[in-house]
Amino acid sequence: MGSFEGLCVDVLVSGLGPVHKHWLGVLPCEFKTNNTLDEFNRSLSSTSQVQVCQLTQETISHGLSLLCRTGNGLGHAFVKLDLKEKRLNDIAAISSFVHLRFLDVSNNHLTDLSPLSSLTQLLWLKVDNNAVACIKGQPFAQLAYLQWLSMAGNRLTELDDLAGPALECLNLTGNGIQRLNGLQGSCFANLVTLELRGNKLDTTEGINLPNLRQLYLAQNVIKRLEGLEKLERLTTLHLRENQLDTLDGLSSNMKCLQYLNVRGNAILDEIALKCLELVSKTLRALVLFGNPLVETVDYRLSVLIVLPQLERLDKEPVTTRERIEAQERIHELKEEEISEP
Is 9 helix (H, G, I), strand (E, B) or coil? Predict the structure, then answer.
């Protein structure tokens, strides 16, 4: 039929019956996701203390958009539903809308996501700022096409029963997660980006995701780097504002690591820099601002001696002069080693 933009049609929507002369406009396939961490960490009132609304067919009809062919190509259906900020505590009524591909139910009072298991065509799902404390019955494991999932600002403390065979991006910012159990490659074979900022993690142990490329762990209470040797394809590791005093735990198996941010930790001296030699061949950008080490004399030179291939340090490009000085110092150190009896 071609473009549906501006088209006035009669459409049969599963669960609603005819929706007459509904003006359609093709909207972007992604909702805005620029929430701040403060918003994710805001207090959520319990459903017993707030006024909640029942999800009605009228509410659903107002939130539907983006008319597309159904998967079998034999009909058309609305595939995008926006139900954010509707004061909902139950979404059972959407379980019959099996053609949905994009769903936003953020900023409600949801605790149970099991109705989502029937939405087998979902590609994109946003459940931010609800009251989900656990995931019952593995609802996402049945969503074979779901590629993007955000559950930021909920009440999760662990990741049992969380799975996504096609997930590429998973955002769990601002929950209360203490352990990373359940993050296995068998459950997340295609996961590329994992966002876990603002949780309660004290270690990196438990992330067994060999295809992961970007890992964001800022604003936790991480004291130990553990299990990172399993992340052989990781390119970005973000550990800002944790409690690290060493970089022990980096692994030579991390053969793709290009960006490391450990700003605002407790790294004291050059001894910690020795651990960076394990990733020196690939690391191109390093952020160490906010660590005691930065206050030492010739700090940048010390880093470049360990990481001669580095291109950016603390957001500033490495200058030609700095690189030459580092090479000269490396040469001097080698000569000193040779001359020692």
Answer: strand
- Rounded to whole angstroms, the Cα distance separating 293 from 296 reads 6
Confidence at residue 340, expressed as pLDDT on a 0 to 100 scale: 65
19 pLDDT band, cuts 50/70/90, is very low
- Domain locations in the chain as residue ranges: 94-339
Alpha-helical (H) ranges within 166-277 are none
Name which of 25-34, 168-177, 220-229, 252-261 the model is least confident about. Answer: 25-34
- In the chain, the DSSP E strands lie at 8-13, 17-23, 64-69, 76-82, 102-104, 124-126, 148-150, 169-171, 193-195, 214-216, 236-238, 259-261, 285-287, 312-313, 316-317
* Continuous segment of H or E residues that includes residue 322: helix 320-339
- Angle, alpha carbons 55-56-60 (nearest 5°): 90
pLDDT digit string, tens, across residues 31-73:
344 454 555 455 444 444 668 898 999 999 999 999 999 888 8
pLDDT of residue 181: 85
**Using 50, 70 and 90 to split pLDDT, how confident is the model at 177?**
very high
Type of residue found at 138: Q
Quote the tokens at residue 300: 């940048």
Task: With H, G, I as helix, E, B as strand and everything else as coil, classify residue 330.
Answer: helix
Beta bridge pairs of residue 88 = 53
Q: Which helix (H) or strand (E) segment is 63 a member of?
A: helix 57-63
Cα distance between residue 196 and residue 62, in whole Å: 33
Which class in CATH covers the domain with range 94-339? alpha beta
Q: Token pair for residue 227?
A: 């299990």
The rounded distance, in Å, linking the Cα atoms of 202 and 227 is 13
Per-residue exposure over 93-120, b if at least 16 CB sit within 10 Å of its own CB, e if not = bbeebbbbbbbbbbbbbbbbbebbbbbe
